[in-house]
Amino acid sequence: MTAIAELDLPALDYMDASLAGPRFHEELERVRERSWIARAGELGFFVLDREAAAFFLRTSSATFPGRKMLEVQGVSSGPLYERFKGNLLDLDGADHRRLRKLVQPAFTPPAADRHRPAMRDLLERLWEPVAGTGRCEFVASFAKPYPAMMIATVMGAPLADAERLGTWANLIQGQFDPVKVATMLPELERAALEFGDYTRELLEARHDDPRDDLISQLIAAEEEGDRLSDEECVMLVSAVLVGGVDTTQAQLAHGLRLFAEHPEQWRLIAEDPSLAPAAAEEVLRYEPITPFTARIALEDIVYRDVTFPEGTLLIACSATANRDPAEYEAPASFDIRADRGRAKPLTFGAGPHFCLGANLARAELHEAFAFLAPRMPELALDGAPAYDTPIGIYALDELRLCFGPA
């Protein structure tokens, strides 16, 4: 056995501000060709191939680091830190299973399918200002408002609040980005405070006026003696509202970027909308908007004759795992008709902390691609995309597109 600290490993500078766009994948491929694992500075280690990444995501010997991700960055108090307490991502074992079980029924495939008519209505509403213009800034026109309005619908928040929800979600999710924690902490903490107050007000309103929405369902579970405290209810609602917005927003924007770069693939969907689910899977595989998912070793772990001591931070890299040539044929090609076999992308994670809203996100992508493809023919980039950092949620800040008449 060899201790991980004794290995001569390549390094990936995750704090490099230029690590985005094409260069991001070039750097990842450079380190992946050298080793299945790479150093992440003093933070820990990147796990790069699919088999290893899936192992560390699923093993019971490691867990999501939760508040430890903030502690290693020097944040051990304050609104952002407190928000993590009781959060699903900060829990394990029986507590995690119990809370997840309460909210899971709202995010099954049939539950997601029930929201498809609402998705189409929202897409129609967002399309009206763009129709006939031949161009748009896609992030502001579609990618931001669409998932925010959709998660508001699922949760029972007013649609008029969707823009605020989107803004809060984008800021709060910066908790997973060391650059943003280092440079924007007061803004992130202010968003966490404001969002917490909003969530409590929304819960109070639903106590007095229950409806057919997830918030009312959680309150009912609490009242039926399921031991769901007020604060647990706040944490669940907060986690779903935040987690259900910026992830889909980012994935949808990258999807349209990829189709603008591969217009022949976009035409296939326009001609046959039934390809939208396959298109969504290929977008999720090719450009995962959660390129890195952390786990921390709860005990010494031996894997591939390498010992990872207790407390080691391991960062599963879906961006390389999803393009692993050992798992996928022609993994560097973007092809919605390719047979990718049984190896599912790791974009939504794996194991107990697998993304709760994966089915809803997939349905939103299916409906968006099927709706937009016939209405935006001859899709092309109308300028260089503006990339956010790939640490945390890998979003696009701006995506200008042009297209022909429907």
Q: CATH homologous superfamily - what is it?
A: Cytochrome P450
Low-confidence stretches: none
Assign a percent range to the helix content: 40-55%
- Shape annotation: globular
Mean pLDDT rating: 91
Structure report:
- With about 400 residues, the chain is an alpha+beta fold.
- The protein has a single domain (about 1-400), classed as Cytochrome P450 (Cytochrome p450, Orthogonal Bundle), CATH 1.10.630.
- Helix content is about 50%, strand content about 10%.
- The protein is built from 18 helices and 13 strands.
- It has helices at about 20-35, 50-60, 70, 80-85, 95-105, 110-115, 115-125, 140-145, 145-155, 160-170, 180-210, 215-225, 230-245, 245-260, 265-270, 275-285, 320, 360-370; strands spanning about 1-5, 35-40, 45, 60-65, 135, 290-295, 300-305, 305-310, 315, 380, 385, 395-400, 400.
- The chain has a five-stranded mixed β-sheet with strand order 2-3-9-6-4. A three-stranded mixed β-sheet has the order 1-8-7, with no helix packed on it.
- A hairpin with a 3-residue loop joins strand 2 and strand 3 (about 45).
- Helix 7 runs antiparallel to helix 9 (about 145-155), helix 9 crosses helix 10 (about 160-170) and helix 14 (about 245-260) packs across helix 15.
- It is globular, with a radius of gyration of 21 Å.
- The termini are far apart.
